[in-house]
Amino acid sequence: MQKKLIALAVASLASGAAFAQTNVTMYGIADVGYIYSSGDAYRGPNGNISSGSNAFSGLQSGILSGSRLGFRGEEALGNGLKAVFTLEYSLNLDNNTGVGSGTGGLYARQQFVGLSSATLGTVALGRQYSPGYIATVNNDPLGGALVESQSYLSAQAKMTITPNSAARWNNAITYTSPNWSGFSAKGIYAFGETAAANGSYNDKLTDINANQMFGLGFNYANGPLNVDLVYQSRMNVVNADKSLVTGNYPPGTDNDINEYYVGASYDFKMVKIMGSYQKQNDKNWTNFDSNLWSLGAVIPVLSASNIHLAYAQLNMDQNSCGLLGTGNGNVCGLTGSTNSATLAWTTALSKRTTLYAGYVWNDNDKKSITPTTGGLGSSAGPVAGIGALGQTNNTLLAGIRHTF
């Protein structure tokens, strides 16, 4: 009996030593709030207002920060090398979806595993943030909040340099450098893994070079100053309407979509200012070239509160409608812009709990367009479904965020 107890004690100590080498952390964010958004009905080229309402009232998950549940960990492998992993999944607190409840599988924000060295950097494989995600969060007064001006305009312009899902890339390999006196860099390559219409990967039916993505980002962060430079490209983009096996558009004949970004912020303590400019060059069939600039500020007030200010303008350019022809009325051959302003208040009740409230103003001119699957375009707005050509809409919001 005594031998058994000794054996159990030794096994327990050995097990504890093994577990001590692997650190796993569970973390998450629970964020939900109320949104009311309304605007004028669509105004046509003659100024007439169409019938129908244009309003939304309800709860929304992840307004300030996307609600999530995640696990990350590392294991020391010796000689300064360690294995790392992250598994992070989206949660929608308002309608009981997320994690494993999606019809297409998990709502994964990140899923990767890799090797990391303090002197050599980190290589990781899986679904990961592109450099554009990190840069836009760095230089945004609300850290890439769902309804903040730069955030929703970049998302609705189909940019991948955005603090939203388009900046999370599947099938990706990344390299992240160490920090060299404030300088760091990140590179990402994502395989297209394009299947033919029949679901096969026969090289006679599909192009293994289609739909690849590449990105490179540079960051300098030292004291109050932060600067980001980003280049991202979607290569040999195969549009949904161009079959891989039939028609006049064989694989590999589509064009790249290239994006460029520069952003910076400086913290004067009494106020933190920031700004960014980005451009998307898309020479595919809808020819949605665009550029987006933004300015912002964070002003500390009282002991644990901040005022957040932002202004952004999205300029869209559809000079040619390609396959759509010329019969699309207000869309083809036009350029337009959307202007947005955000005013928000955040108050930290503790290190983990934040109350917030805000107002978003959005104004689309009569030629304002953002791309859709069909290519006909629709106007921008901070709430899905609220936004039309020639429309001004207003959004009020308030909520609570808790991190753990």
Automatic annotation (TrEMBL):
Signal peptide: 1-20
Bilayer topology annotation: Multi-pass membrane protein
CDD domains listed in its UniProt record: gram_neg_porins (cd00342)
Molecular function as annotated in GO: porin activity
Main localization of the protein described in the UniProt heading: membrane
Source organism superkingdom: Bacteria
Swiss-Prot/TrEMBL GO biological process terms: monoatomic ion transport
InterPro entries on file: Gram-neg_bact_OMP (IPR050298), Gram_neg_porin_domain (IPR033900), Porin_dom_sf (IPR023614), Porin_Neis (IPR002299)
GO CC annotations on file: cell outer membrane; pore complex
Residues in Porin domain copies: 7-366
UniProt KW keywords: Cell outer membrane, Ion transport, Membrane, Porin, Signal, Transmembrane, Transmembrane beta strand, Transport
Protein localization: Cell outer membrane
Matches recorded under PANTHER family: MAJOR OUTER MEMBRANE PROTEIN P.IA, PROTEIN YDDL-RELATED
Subunit structure, as described in the record: Homotrimer.
Protein known as: Porin Gram-negative type
